[in-house]
Write a structure and sequence with these properties.
The chain has helices at residues 2-19, 24-45, 50-65, 72-96, 100-116, 121-140, 148-169, 174-201, 207-235, 239-266, 295-312, 321-332, 344-368, 378-393, 413-435, 441-450, 457-485, 489-506, 511-524, 530-553, 559-585, 593-610, 612-615, 622-651, 663-683, 714-733; strands spanning 691-692, 740-741. By secondary structure, the chain is mostly helical. Belongs to the YccS/YhfK family.
């Protein structure tokens, strides 16, 4: 019973780790609630009036969520600098409250400076946010000069409680966060393997749902990998260890994605297009080479579950002969003689299982150190030797990518955003005063918020719509909850803290949900009547409209322009990865391929976020939405093949079955040319760049190249990736309107 209970807790913890990588959202929500509760407890003991309790709660919330640095030292410095900024801001708010025009003008200047401060990094962003929010606090509680000494004390208590919650109650170190992210990656990898196992038995009725789950699981695994890459520099002191972990994470991600593609192919009478795994709504291939029930299919089901358990089980629980036998059996599939009798497509799945098991072994060694080797078979020993050789060959690159020059003047993003939000806030102040001379600042708050983490008019429009929708739903929920709670103060207080937690926990997932919880929380405060909550809806709508108008009129960055700029960046990164990988596979020096692949993934993530206004369900341009989804899916397909080429190229110095093939450089020339031609056309439609067409990549090489074993040699696998990459790049040319030309001879 005790073991079963422990197993249940482990499974629950793994699910939580997978849904919230690094427990970052959980920690943010709990830390904010702890800071607010601690502040209110101290202020209640001091018997401060209710308005000061509200001010303390707001100041504690700001002091907690504004700090963004990952290291504890910089966090403490920013928090210490934030206190005088907060005291100065509340002082100016109280002093200027008597002069409406001067106060409004100063508020606009403060907003401009707060947004402009983002150019100075996380600390500038945090100090600007504290300055704005505390000035807003002074307006919210109606601060006066006579009340300033008490407010100073309240703010100092709030910052002290925020520091206690951050550094004592819920401490979070970069190394601890990275460790939890690694656990989340392992949990998400196990979930993806479970979905792949479901694909084996999925019937016609539920096959599409399983395919959708497969796409979601693959995307979630990639998200976790990117989060780990973003935390490696701060979480690992040794650059060589960080590089090794980054490499092993990339290997496991690629192996899992390849295994999914091989399973899809085994369900089909023909090879599955990689795009099927990345394009939402793409149909599942029809026909199947996978028997419903035979020895091979039963072994696949058994081994997928075995691989999932192998991924999930920590090293401390992996001792004993049972798991060692499972590991040895899976790694044995990398040898041709150990493959069970089955069709070529099904045998490919077993090979994929072997590669995934090798990636899982490398991931375990990188995360948890050397393992017990006493039960190794020859196949397992060879896999370990390969991993050891790769580990020894990893060197930290001393070269750094030259930084792109930042635009100057009004073209600098922070300057442009500061001017836009200042104009939008001016409109919001004027319009908000017409709606209510007492609560006009709600419109300004909305205008400010819709500009946070947005860079185009379309993004601001979508964010404003989400805030308005969340506010409307929150008003309805708040009124209903207030009627149910009545005068039960402690119940209302508990719900308020719960909503604050939910607000921060859901913020990275859904801005609509975050707005819903903050508005519902206000509805629980009985000082807000129905008319005031309706006014909040009106002010929110006004603030969102002012933000959109300012973004569309003042130094606008249209969604098309931003997505085109990001698309060019993705294509440039893709060309770098492809060129570097093939150059290394051809016998040259490809550079830091791991870092180039990471730059490609980050650029693609930025593009995916920027296209949300184009792919949002409310967009009226359906054809444009479908085109945007198709282009992003094609780019994700290209990125997968680019990452795979880079991973294969990095094996070259250490893998005994991989040898450089100079002919690959010529086969790659057309692909790189086409990528560059598409990038040139997107950057300037008048460029006249044309893509080249011609024979398949495989036929461009001399006869005899493909006489190597089907899966055991590098050339076959590299050619497959190059062929699919060539097809995907050619597919990009059509929706982007790039003309095609005849093939050019290449050396």
């Amino acid at each position: 019973m005790r073991a079963a209970g422990r197993s249940g807790r482990v499974r629950m913890w793994d699910r939580l780790a997978a849904s919230d990588p690094g427990l970052l959202r959980l920690t943010a929500g709990l830390r904010t609630v702890a800071a607010i509760a601690l502040t209110l407890a101290v202020l209640a003991v001091l018997r401060v009036p209710v308005p000061h309790l509200v001010a303390g709660a707001m100041a504690a919330m700001v002091a907690t969520f504004a700090i963004r640095e990952k290291q504890r030292g910089p966090q403490a410095v920013t928090l210490a600098l934030g206190l005088p900024v907060a005291l100065a801001s509340v002082s100016l708010g109280a002093l200027l409250n008597r002069w409406v025009v001067i106060g409004d003008l100063f508020f606009v200047v403060l907003i401009f400076c707060a947004v402009y401060g983002r150019r100075f990094g996380d600390r500038g962003t945090a100090l600007g946010l504290i300055g704005f929010q505390i000035y807003f606090l002074s307006l919210f509680v109606g601060a006066t000069t006579s009340a300033l000494p008490a407010l100073y004390g309240v703010i100092c208590v709030a910052f002290a409680c925020g520091a206690a919650a951050r550094f004592a109650l819920l401490p979070q170190t970069p190394a601890g966060t990275l460790d939890r992210l690694r656990r989340a990656f392992r949990a998400r990898l196990a979930q993806l393997l479970a979905t792949q196992a479901e694909l084996l038995d999925a019937g016609p009725d539920d096959a599409e749902k399983v395919l959708a789950d497969l796409r979601t699981g693959t995307a979630r695994l990639h998200e976790a990998a990117l989060m780990i890459q973003g935390r490696l520099e701060d979480g690992v002191s040794d650059p060589a260890v960080a590089r090794l972990l980054q490499r092993r994470i990339a290997d496991a991600e690629i192996a899992a994605e390849r295994l999914g593609l091989l399973l899809l192919t085994a369900r089909s009478a023909r090879r599955t297009d990689t795009l099927t795994l990345h394009l939402p709504g793409a149909p599942l291939p029809t026909g199947s080479e996978l028997p419903v029930r035979d020895e091979a299919s039963d072994a696949l089901r058994r081994d997928l579950e075995a691989l999932r358990l192998l991924v999930l089980r920590p090293a401390g629980e992996a001792s004993g002969t049972a798991l060692a036998q499972v590991r040895n059996r899976l790694l044995g599939y990398r040898e041709e003689e150990n493959l069970p009798p089955a069709s070529p497509a099904v045998q490919d799945v077993f090979r994929g299982l072997g590669e995934a098991a090798r990636a899982a072994l490398g991931l375990r060694v990188a995360m948890e150190g050397p393992q017990d080797e006493s039960d190794d078979t020859p196949a397992t020993a060879r896999s370990r030797e390969e991993l050891d050789a790769e580990d020894a060959a990893i060197e930290v690159s001393e070269e750094s990518e030259p930084e792109e020059p930042e635009p100057a003047g009004l073209q600098r993003p922070t300057t442009r955003a500061a001017v836009q939000v200042a104009v939008g806030s001016s409109l919001a102040i004027a319009g908000g005063e017409l709606l209510s001379s007492q609560r006009w600042y709600w419109a300004v708050l909305t205008c400010w918020i819709v500009f946070l983490n947005t860079a185009s008019t379309g993004e601001i429009l979508v964010k404003g719509y989400r805030r308005l929708l969340g506010t409307v739903l929150g008003v309805v929920a708040g009124i209903g909850l207030a009627a149910l709670v009545g005068h039960h103060t402690w119940t209302a207080f508990a719900l308020v803290l719960l909503f604050i937690f939910a607000m921060f926990y859901t913020a990275p997932l859904s801005y609509t949900l975050m707005s819903f919880f903050v508005t519902a929380m206000l509805g629980l405060l009985h000082t807000y009547s129905l008319s005031v909550l309706v006014l909040r809806i009106e002010e929110t709508a006004l603030g969102a409209a002012c933000g959109v108008i300012a973004a569309a009129v003042v130094l606008p960055i249209h969604t098309d322009r931003r997505t085109n700029d990001l698309l060019v960046t993705v294509l440039d990164r893709l060309a770098d990865v492809t060129r570097g990988a093939v150059d290394q596979l051809s016998g040259g020096a490809g550079g830091d391929l791991v870092e180039q692949a990471r730059a490609l993934d980050q650029a693609l993530a930025d593009l995916r976020a920027a296209t949300q206004p184009l792919t949002h369900p409310i967009t009226p341009l359906r054809a444009r939405r479908d085109t945007a989804r198709y282009v992003v899916a094609l780019l994700e397909t290209c990125a997968y093949h680019g990452r795979s080429l880079a991973a294969t190229a990095e094996l070259l110095p250490t893998h005994p079955s991989i040898a450089a093939d100079p002919r690959l450089r010529g086969a790659c020339g057309r692909i790189v040319h086409n990528i560059e031609a598409i990038a040139a056309h997107v950057a300037d439609p008048r460029s006249g760049a044309e893509t080249e067409t011609g024979p398949s990549i495989a036929s461009m090489l001399e006869p005899g190249t493909l006489r190597t074993p089907r899966y055991g040699r590098v050339t076959d696998r590299v050619l497959r990736h190059l062929q699919r990459l060539d097809e995907a790049v050619s597919g990009l040319a059509r929706p982007l309107g790039v003309a095609g030309g005849p093939v050019q001879p290449r050396t």
